[in-house]
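Usage

Read records sequentially. Each one opens with the input sequence:
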Amino acid sequence: MVIVEFVIVPLGEESLSGYVAEVVKLLERKGVKYQLTPMSTVMEVPTVEEAFDVIREAHEVMFRLGARRVSTTVRIDDRRDRERHMEDKVKSVLEKLSGEGGG
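and closes with the structure output:
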């Protein structure tokens, strides 16, 4: 699985929640597993290609909503030696915090 964090910002807008809501609707229509955070969206998809396809579509949503300029930032965690999921990464940290996972 590829875990991707992305931020899409229609520049010049004061409130972004309506734009974010439309991206979340897109993710749900596509059946993409995602986690919304206060500053970004994280999704989990099988391939980097699928990640870029989804991000491209989300980027275009901004223009369809009337944005004249859009800035998109992407971070990719593509681990191929074993399958990892978003919650695995969080669980690993929480185990270390509780003393279960070592240093």
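Summary fields computed downstream for this record:
- The helical segments are 17-30, 48-64, 86-97.
- The mean pLDDT is 94.
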